[in-house]
Predict the 3D structure of the following.
Amino acid sequence: MRAAEAGESGLARLHWSRLRGLLPDVENLTVRTPHVVSEIVGDESGVTGVRLRDLRDETEQDVNAAVTVVAAGPWSGAVAALGGVSYQMQRSRGAMIGFNGRWTSHIINRLHWPGDGDIFIPFGPHGVAGTTSVSTDDPGDRRIEPWERERIM
């Protein structure tokens, strides 16, 4: 349920620069953090934008848009519900471990249904290995349990 603003975060720049590459003709693309969607705004013709609440000072702002994309990850169901849309999601959380050193020059993935220990990702001079897959009902569940570290290693 967050909107995001591409700031100085390296990861944010990476993701939003890729999004921008996919949408080369879009002007005025704005991404905001740390905001949450508090309402989906619309009229008889459909969705016209969203109302955002700034988590720093609790102020709200309406953002109008010709196209509104819900890209809220595990919170997507809650955001869609603000617009009267209901659907089921099967959520899972997972752990990844970062390493000093790059093991490969390309992503290696076993390409199967979500499981444990199935991917290596080069990230600059580092490597990331993962993941685990644990069902959860809580979209904010960020626990990493000891067995998950062991499984990845």
